Amino acid sequence: MMPAIRTDGLTKRFDDVVAVDSLDLEVWKGEVFGFLGPNGAGKSTVINVLLDFVRPTAGSVRVLGHDPRTDADRIRRRTGVVPEGNPLYDRLTGREHLEWTARAHDVAVDATALLERVGLPLEAGDRPVGGYSTGMRQRLSLAMALAGDPDLLILDEPSAGLDPTGSRRFREIVREEADDGRTVFFSSHVLGEVEAVSDRVGIMADGRLVATGTIPELRAELDLDASIVLEVERVPPDLALEAVPGVDGVAVDGTTLRVDLADATAKGEVVARVARHARVLDVRSEGTSLERLFATYTSAGSTERSAESADRSRLAEVEE
Amino acid sequence: MSVRTVVAKDFLDVRRARTVRFVGGLYTTLIVLLFAQVRFGTGGPSDARMAVWNMVVVGAAFIPAIALVSAYLAIAGERESGSIVSLLSTPVSRRDVVLGKYVSRAVVVAASLAVAFTIAAGLAAVWFPAFDPAVFAGTAALTTLYALAYVSVAIAVSASTATRARAMAGAIGFYFATNLVTLFDDVSGLAALEYVANELLGLGLGADAIQFLGILSNPTRAYLASTMLVLPAELTEAIGLPARESLSWYVQPEIAVAILFGWLVVPVAIGWYRFERADIT
């Protein structure tokens, strides 16, 4: 199968700064690919190269089988884009944006249906975009990306500025598009968004692709623990939980038992054994969150997997 | 042809821009005031030719401003705001953007001049019994050509710069470099050309050769030289322009017109070349 997007050794330098460093990336047709990384990791530069907004310093790029440098218009004809920061024309109405985009793609558009699909009020569609909120602009950008009936969607931080309803709508649309056989390539630093909707994930840090794969694959590759937390009435002395296959370690804090698992399927046995010896008040299961994965991959040069580094990456989000 | 989609979009956008309408309106007002001044002041009803000459002079100074203001942000403004990315995310090429913007802004400028000329022609016909429609139409055509030469320059500047500030600096710089040095004798561009060519480079060029360099390098000078083609000989004589017969072939008004046509193409081609190679971030 031909990949929808493929880069080999893609490198982009701006003066002395290496924004993208020897990137090898493959996105398959029909998949939803989440392109994850902190701000400044080089995600937007990669997207800008795919769309021929910037030219690579080295390496080769194929989008839908074409080279952006020579066949950008062929790529754009089959691609819908949500650009970073949803730059729009403040003097034009939402409807005019959609009609113009459809015209550029040479297709007919049902602007009303599109506005409804992304959850923009129809009356807002007739107002100049200058008065839109960030969330509304983001919804309109998504509608514009869909207006040309594309085979490939390239979305740069598409959920930034969306409220929870908007985010949910966005995820539904991405799934619907993928179910129709379209390829969705979207960047995000919002981890939950990527986790919820992607078939595969690529993690970028400092211009490099540090990991690619499905989320279970990434977990396996990293060998990260899952853990289970039990609240008990009283911690019994002779649990010997360490003897259960798959258990990595046990920590006791008051009446809280925290059991780290190398094998997540050991959870049932752990709960059963504790329940035989003590009254269990509560059980919480903690899978390896993508956030922890993310922190692991992107904390530069550090092997530390502490909650602190996850907090730092959250902080970076807030600051942005 | 996606140049057309760019033109269509740009019309939508620019028709809501106030600046362009304002500058166009100002030019119309100026012409009307000048005509009124000739009619009711200095010249009287018999002086239709002086009225047309005034239109040339005010046009020489004012037309570039209209053209530059109308077009210098066409591309650079969109790069600064980022909306160029929206535009280029659709199936339009960079060439389409440059040509589409050029066509759209050229049409906007030509249309606002057409309005101004229509009003001026109507007034002139009423105020000046000796009004010559042919002279007026010729002047209007050359003035429009002159305006489009500056639109071409503005598009080139806009395609070569990534921010509003730089585009403005480029547009103002070009305006001063071509306009002030032509219209004010104190800062004569020709004297500067002569100094560089003859004193510094020792080329020993004659007056006509210097004049040719002036026409070639400066659309304002080309415009003024070209008007000899349409203005009657009595008028050009009265305002102290040299007789056509005394000029070398390469400074004849036809050459000046050809050079103005060159200005329609060359700057835009350079702008396109630069825009094609720019990183748009």
From TrEMBL, chain A:
Origin: domain of life: Archaea
Protein family (similarity comment): Belongs to the ABC transporter superfamily.
GO molecular function, one term: ATP binding
Annotated transmembrane regions: none
PROSITE patterns in alphabetical order: ABC_TRANSPORTER_2 (PS50893)
Domain ABC transporter: 5-231
Signal peptide annotation: none
SUPFAM superfamilies xrefs: P-loop containing nucleoside triphosphate hydrolases (SSF52540)
Alphabetized InterPro entries for the sequence: AAA+_ATPase, ABC_transporter-like_ATP-bd, P-loop_NTPase
Record bears the keyword Nucleotide-binding: yes
Gene3D superfamilies in the record: P-loop containing nucleotide triphosphate hydrolases (3.40.50.300)
Record keyword Glycoprotein present: no
SMART domains: AAA
Keywords from the named record: ATP-binding, Nucleotide-binding, Transport
Protein name: ABC-2 type transport system ATP-binding protein
TrEMBL record, chain B:
Any single GO CC term annotated in Swiss-Prot or TrEMBL for this entry: plasma membrane
Protein name: ABC-2 type transport system permease protein
Gene Ontology MF, one: ABC-type transporter activity
The UniProt record lists the keyword Transferase: no
Transmembrane segments: 20-40, 52-75, 102-128, 134-155, 167-184, 255-275
Species of provenance: Natronobacterium haloterrestre (Halobiforma haloterrestris)
Keyword Acyltransferase in annotation: no
One Pfam family per UniProt: ABC2_membrane_2
Keywords from the UniProt entry: Membrane, Transmembrane, Transmembrane helix
